[in-house]
């Protein structure tokens, strides 16, 4: 069989391992279920194309083992029922490729023009299907919580989901297609890296070839994408004033304020052994881009403690920043706590492991595998050329790995630069402030200050002292400097001239 031969003869040891594991899953399914009880869900995309050819090889090998002779197995024999959900919003190239593939490999096609759930209900009612092969990979939105064999979700028709390529990466998919030299949809040669509907899919801008002649843009093929974590960058973002991946997108010129919470993880902070200097710097940086900090919290090095705090804050704030407790030690539980807060498991991330391998090289131990375990299906790696390892983003939670001020400065600068191109962090009008110092007593100033606060509810007005006998500092903070000046004058006019002095 040409697929099996191509893989066995290639020099890519990782691809061989992925192929062997996938074939094992397929053969196990074909042992558990009869041919009449299994089906392939095919949509014309790269993942399902890989799955089709894996199934062809797996069926060939399964029949060969049963008969003890490969001679009795025809390579073009593929009796597994194939399901195709035809959609009016699909690319014409996808439809053409699907039907041409069906003709080439004599696929028994069931064309369904209903929605996925209704179509499955009708299909399973008319046929004795008990298991469906799917091209789901870790990182796909539907992969959360799935194993290689996973029963269908509650409320859906009952069948076994079989996921032979669940642990494959973007790189693995393209390695297979190129090594086996099988045909794939032509859109992938035009810069598309993840294909959905015609309404939400565009060529991946990371593959755009710069053209100084102002002519039509050209793109490199999908297999040249340098970082597989960015394969969905070609899915067009909808401009909605709602939450997208846990982050609210708002008009950057509006007066609205986004809120963030800051969580530090570390028993050493709670014990008073270490003085944390990162939270104050992070607060100042957030204010500089117009974000308000709603909470500062410190949790123990405990998965449940981290999960409880993250779960509370991710639903009340636009963004959560968490640092500390990241690494190979037994006390480094932050990432696992984030996974628990989102209700997902930890799963190996091969591309993150590659970054770790480049960073620690020969110092790798078995612990590196634990460090490469990330929250399944919700993790986005935030890359920057100045970062040795990408930052981890799960929904609206960003995990910072900084352990000192210099590292936080670098990671923050990289985040801001990234935000300008992909909106990981919305940049708003910065907060501005004015501080007045006075020797007046708290009792003297309390009532006039309360009235000013009522007159300017859009502003943060507060008072504090650096020391008990030092001057009282009144701080006016907001986004409109004119309003701040007016508010400070409103307070000053209640007292004799010279009662207040402005300080930096």
UniProtKB/TrEMBL annotation:
Q: Which InterPro entries match?
A: MoaB/Mog-like_dom_sf (IPR036425), MoaB/Mog_dom (IPR001453), PAPS_reduct_dom (IPR002500), Rossmann-like_a/b/a_fold (IPR014729)
| Pfam families with a match to the protein in the record | MoCF_biosynth, PAPS_reduct
Its GO biological process terms?
FAD biosynthetic process
Q: Which GO molecular-function terms appear in the entry?
A: ATP binding; FMN adenylyltransferase activity
Q: What is this protein called?
A: Uncharacterized protein LOC107807061
What organism is the protein native to?
Answer: Nicotiana tabacum (Common tobacco)
Per the UniProt record, the lineage of the source organism begins with:
Eukaryota, Viridiplantae, Streptophyta, Embryophyta, Tracheophyta
């Amino acid at each position: 069989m040409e697929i099996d031969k191509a893989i066995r003869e290639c020099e890519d040891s990782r691809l061989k391992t992925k192929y062997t594991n996938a074939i094992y899953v397929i053969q196990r399914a074909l042992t558990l279920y009869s041919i009449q009880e299994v089906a392939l869900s095919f949509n014309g995309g790269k993942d399902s194309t890989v799955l089709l050819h894996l199934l062809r090889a797996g069926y060939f090998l399964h029949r060969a083992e049963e008969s003890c002779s490969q001679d009795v197995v025809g390579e073009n024999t593929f009796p597994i029922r194939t399901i195709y959900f035809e959609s009016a919003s699909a690319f014409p190239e996808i439809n053409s490729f699907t039907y041409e593939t069906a003709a080439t490999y004599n696929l028994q096609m069931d064309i369904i023009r209903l929605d996925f759930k209704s179509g499955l209900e009708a299909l399973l009612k008319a046929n004795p299907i008990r298991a469906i092969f799917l091209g789901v990979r870790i990182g796909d939105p539907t992969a959360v919580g799935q194993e290689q064999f996973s029963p269908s979700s509650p409320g859906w028709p009952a069948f076994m989901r079989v996921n032979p390529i669940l642990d494959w990466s973007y790189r693995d998919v393209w390695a297979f297609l190129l090594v086996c030299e099988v045909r794939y949809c032509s859109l992938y040669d035009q810069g598309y890296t993840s294909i959905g509907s015609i309404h939400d899919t565009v060529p991946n801008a990371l593959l755009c070839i710069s053209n100084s002649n102002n002519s039509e843009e050209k793109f490199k093929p999908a297999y040249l994408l340098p970082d597989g974590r960015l394969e969905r960058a070609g899915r067009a973002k909808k401009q909605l004033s709602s939450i997208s991946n846990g982050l609210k997108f708002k008009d950057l010129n509006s007066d609205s304020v986004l809120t963030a919470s800051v969580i530090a993880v570390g028993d050493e902070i709670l014990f008073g052994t270490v003085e944390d200097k990162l939270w104050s710097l992070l607060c100042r940086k957030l204010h500089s881009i117009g974000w308000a900090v709603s909470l500062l919290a410190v949790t123990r090095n405990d998965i449940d403690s981290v999960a409880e705090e993250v779960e509370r804050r991710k639903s009340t704030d636009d963004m959560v920043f968490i640092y500390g407790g990241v690494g190979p030690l037994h006390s480094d539980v932050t990432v696992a706590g984030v996974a628990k807060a989102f209700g997902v498991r930890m799963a190996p991330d091969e591309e993150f492991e590659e970054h770790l391998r480049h960073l620690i090289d020969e110092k790798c131990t078995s612990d590196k595998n634990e460090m490469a375990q990330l929250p399944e299906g919700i993790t986005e790696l935030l890359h920057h050329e100045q970062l040795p390892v990408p930052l981890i983003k799960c929904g609206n939670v960003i995990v910072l790995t900084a352990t000192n001020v210099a590292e936080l400065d670098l990671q923050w600068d990289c985040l801001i630069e990234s935000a300008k191109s992909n909106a990981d962090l919305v940049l708003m009008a910065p907060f501005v402030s004015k501080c007045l110092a006075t020797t007046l007593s708290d009792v003297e100033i309390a009532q006039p200050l309360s009235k000013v606060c009522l007159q300017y509810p859009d502003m943060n007005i507060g008072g504090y002292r650096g020391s008990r006998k030092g001057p009282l500092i009144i701080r006016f903070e907001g986004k409109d400097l004119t309003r701040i000046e007016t508010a400070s004058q409103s307070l000053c006019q209640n007292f004799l001239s010279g009662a207040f002095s402005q300080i930096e």
